[in-house]
Sequence to fold (121 residues):
Amino acid sequence: MGLNPHASKDLQNRTKDETHLRPIVKYFSKKKVNIIGPISSDTAFNDFKNKVYLGMYHDQVLIPFKMMNKFKGINITIGKNLLRLSPDHGPAKQLNNNKNKSQINNQSFIECIKFCEKFNV
Fold:
């Protein structure tokens, strides 16, 4: 994604998307990594063939990601001393005292555990 929500496509001058992100994309492209960007977050999810999205902001990625993956997505936070994995679902506060447990879906939690097992996390 981009630092600017529109990936600076609407600006003519040099922007941080061009000066900071574009060189990183070019570097990994030369290493034969299949990578694109910076790209506007409101169009990035038009192509569901992508496997990984790197977003600069929480809301830039999670809202469309949750809509796309339903209950199968996991959130991975990188750049910290500890790898943080979490199921990609909301707090479901409306279900807290709900007697109808059939509305509860734990698939994203199971996907998170599968990821940990696969990569020995």
User: Anything to note?
Assistant: The radius of gyration is 17 Å. Helices lie at 16-30, 41-44, 58-69, 107-118. Strands lie at 74-77, 84-87.
